[in-house]
Design brief:
- It is a single chain.
- The chain starts with a strand and ends with a helix.
- Helix content is 37%, strand content 16%.
- It has five helices and five strands, in the order βββααβααβα.
- It has helices at residues 41-51, 69-79, 89-96, 100-108, 135-152; strands spanning 2-8, 11-17, 23-28, 87-88, 121-122.
- The chain is globular, with a radius of gyration of 15 Å.
- The protein is α+β, with helices and mostly antiparallel strands and 154 residues long.
- α3 (89-96) crosses α4.
- It has a three-stranded antiparallel beta sheet with strand order 1-2-3, covered by helices on one side. The protein has a two-stranded parallel ribbon with strand order 4-5.
- The chain folds into two domains: 2-51; 69-152, Arc Repressor Mutant, subunit A (Orthogonal Bundle).
- The protein binds a DNA duplex (13 and 13 nucleotides) through residues 68, 70-71, 88-90, 93, 98-109, 118, 121, 123-125, 128-132, 135, 138.
- Residues 69-146 form the Methylated-DNA-[protein]-cysteine S-methyltransferase DNA binding domain.
- Belongs to the MGMT family.
- Keywords: DNA damage, DNA repair, Methyltransferase, Transferase.
DNA sequence: GAGTGCGCATGAT
DNA sequence: ATCATGCGCACTC
């Protein structure tokens, strides 16, 4: 078990790693202090690259634990949403033959926000819906990805 | 453990 | 505004 604290555009994040250095959890922290042990450098570098628009897909070992089979199905599908693209809770619900509300509940339990891009799942009325790192963060991430894509394809 | 009630990151009316 | 919805959790037995 190791952890790192990083300052990002969406706030200070705490990142947990297991003994094999896979990421197990990402969450907001009120400990507003940077703290990056050597073993975390590689991942933090990817994270920073993502935030400056130089990385669109994470390539780093993760360890998704403490989730149900249902949660895993939702997260697997979420992982396949392409960069800067969005789908609705309802869209995922239809794929899994469940209800959009249940999908929201599963995403709420996403242990790895940003890496598992649940910010790309929005409500069918076009508003963002909730986010464990805060709604402003969700809006920021969506806007960020769209503008990065735009710049790349000018 | 099985059963039930309830709170949601929703959606359709 | 109101209802249907599925899942997980917190209760009860």
């Amino acid at each position: 078990m190791y952890f790192a604290c990083v300052k990002t555009p969406v706030g200070f994040l705490e990142i947990l790693f297991d003994n094999s250095l896979a990421v197990t959890k990402i969450s907001l922290t009120n400990l507003e202090k940077t703290c990056i042990p050597g073993i975390a450098l590689n991942f933090v570098e990817q994270l920073n690259a993502y935030f400056v628009g130089k990385l669109s897909e994470f390539n780093y070992p993760v360890n998704i634990q403490n989730v149900s089979e249902f949660d895993r199905a939702v997260l697997d599908l979420t992982l396949k949403i392409p960069y800067a693209h969005t789908v609705t809770y309802n869209w995922i619900a239809n794929k899994l033959n469940t209800s959009p509300r249940a999908v929201g509940q599963a995403l709420k339990r996403n242990p790895l926000p940003i890496v598992i891009p649940c910010h790309r799942v929005i409500k069918s009325d076009g508003t963002t819906g909730g986010y464990s790192l805060g709604i402003e963060a969700k809006q920021w991430l969506i806007k960020h990805e769209k503008s990065v894509l735009l710049i790349k394809s000018y």
